[in-house]
Amino acid sequence: MPAAVTDEQNRVDREALLDAAEELFYENGIQAVGMDQLRAASGLSLKRIYRFFEAKDDLVVAMLKRRDQRWRGSLAAHVEQVQDPRERVLSIFDWLGCWFAEPGFRGCAWINAHGEVGPASDAVLAEVRAHKQAFHEQIETWVLAAGSAMAEPVYLLAEGAIVTAGISGDPAPARQAREAVAVLLGNQTARAIAIEPSSLAPPS
């Protein structure tokens, strides 16, 4: 009788499967990757793969959840080491620029997943929306801490840079978006200084 599979072995095998899925899905697209490719890349039998995930969409969702934690965690670690609140916001785009320049960069995994299977999968669509909402909240927190109300434009510039870099294969959109955000934050600071509380007081 074969020995029972331990919890640790289950954890290791599940991680190996997610590693294989993330690499294959990101490089080739979700629909282009078959279960036999996942089996070969992970070293797991199809029976074992289906024991972890009953459907391919379940595997996609799990892969995106894990990638979200790593992706936003890396971004936060980079941004939060910067002391100045305004520079923290700008450092978002420095981090994006490094990501865009990585070998094998193929755009946003969540946008890619949405384009491929989002309209047909409520679970994948929900995970994509959850990631984008969490990214928006990260940016909003850093922008508000810089004394600015420009969170929405900053978020849209970040998303636009991601999409543009993914299509063009050029990391330059991160720098261009950073320059635009610097202007936005600078203009807002200038307006705040120009409108001092005393200037709003009624004449005596």
- The gyration radius over C-alpha positions equals 22 Å
| Record field, number of beta strands | 0
Structural class: mainly alpha
Poorly predicted runs of 5 or more residues: 189-204
**Strand share of the residues?**
under 5%
Q: What is the terminal separation in angstroms?
A: 94 Å
String of helices and strands = HHHHHHHHH
Calculate the mean pLDDT score and round it. Answer: 90
Indicate the overall shape: elongated
Give me the number of helical elements.
Answer: 9
The biggest beta sheet, please? Answer: none
Tell me roughly what share of residues is in helical segments: over 70%
Task: Please tell me about this protein's structure.
- Helix content is 74%, strand content 0%.
- With 204 residues, it is mostly helical.
- The radius of gyration is 22 Å and the shape is elongated.
- The protein starts with 6 loop residues before the first helix and ends in a 10-residue tail after the last helix.
- The relative contact order is 0.10.
- The model is unreliable at 189-204 (pLDDT under 50).
Question: What topology emerges from the helices and strands here?
Answer:
Blueprint: H1 7-28, H2 35-42, H3 46-52, H4 56-79, H5 85-100, H6 109-117, H7 122-145, H8 151-168, H9 172-194
Helix pairs in contact: 1-2, 1-4, 4-7, 5-7, 5-8, 5-9, 6-7, 7-8, 8-9
Features:
single chain; 204 residues; mainly alpha; disordered C terminus
